[in-house]
Amino acid sequence: MHAKAIRIAANGGPEVMEYVDVDVGAPGPGEILLRQHAIGLNFIDVYFRTGLYPQPLPGGLGKEGAGVVEAVGEGVTNVQPGDRVAYAGGPNGAYADLRVMPAAVVVKLPDAISFETAAAMMLQGLTVQYLFRSTYPLQAGQTILFHAAAGGVGLIACQWARALGVQLIGTVGSKEKGELALAHGAAHVINYNDEDIVARVKDITGGAGVPVVYDSVGKDTFAASLDCLQRRGLMVSFGNASGAVEPFTPGELSKRGSLYITRPTLFDYMTNQQEVEAMSAELFEMVTSGKVTINVNQTFPLAQAAEAHRALEARRTTGSTVLLP
């Protein structure tokens, strides 16, 4: 069978992405054939495209999508043909209208959640789930700092924090993005272009600082993030949208009060089907209950994936972006 897919033969800018015809075979043992209806766009796709995260080339891009199972291989029991499913993870290759992939990473999608919403929320929603429930289990009444609060992950985090009774201080790059974060449940916003992050956090917390900082920005915010933490606080560095964090010595942690630091990735929290299903069930419950609304603020045809990457990298997007086959 033929499929349309985005492939890259070399690392580089958005122009290395080619929209091509590919052959898709039958699913092997433990695999499914998935007809995709929507595909999520994430910063991790940029990291693979540029080569920051290496992969064998030529190769595909994309970590999440949603669609309908067309066929299943031997031994697959968690889904069957005709099931609506969604996923985040597995091998790269979501930028396609049809793909063969491991069955273990997909979960059945509740009827109440559309394909576009699912494709927009799996990676970002499961990221918030593991950050808030596992990396540092948040408690009602706490005040936390979350960078890039108006992005796809950020807007989900604002709402999830509010549902948990947590005061989220969100950093943003514009007045409009600040208003968006506040509307989604942030307790405070800091515009990092004209406010001092550390001074504002100390002001908001009465000088105490926060027990945890969630930082996906990387190089530009790293030092400020450490300075916002209270004694024995946790720095969660889960991305590097502004570039990789520069090397630092562990002494920087001791002189700021015996801080902890972790560099987690979602896929270390989703190591088996049970974890995937339990995390997804909690995410689906947050969304179907209305506590978390997923904002699909941009859509692009799959053929225009390069333009979608340009918009993401230029920080022209808010909320989630979906590619449509």
TrEMBL record:
Residues 12-323 form the Enoyl reductase (ER) domain. GO terms for molecular function: mRNA 3'-UTR AU-rich region binding; NADPH binding; quinone reductase (NADPH) activity; zinc ion binding. It is an enzyme of class 1 (oxidoreductase). The keyword Cell membrane does not apply. InterPro entries: ADH-like_C (IPR013149), ADH-like_N (IPR013154), ER (IPR020843), GroES-like_sf (IPR011032), NAD(P)-bd_dom_sf (IPR036291), QOR-like (IPR047618), Quin_OxRdtase/zeta-crystal_CS (IPR002364). Keywords: NADP, Oxidoreductase. The keyword NADP applies. GO terms for cellular component: cytosol. Its EC number is 1.6.5.5. Pfam families: ADH_N, ADH_zinc_N. PROSITE patterns: QOR_ZETA_CRYSTAL. PANTHER family: QUINONE OXIDOREDUCTASE PIG3-RELATED, QUINONE OXIDOREDUCTASE-RELATED. This is NADPH2:quinone reductase. It comes from Massilia aurea.
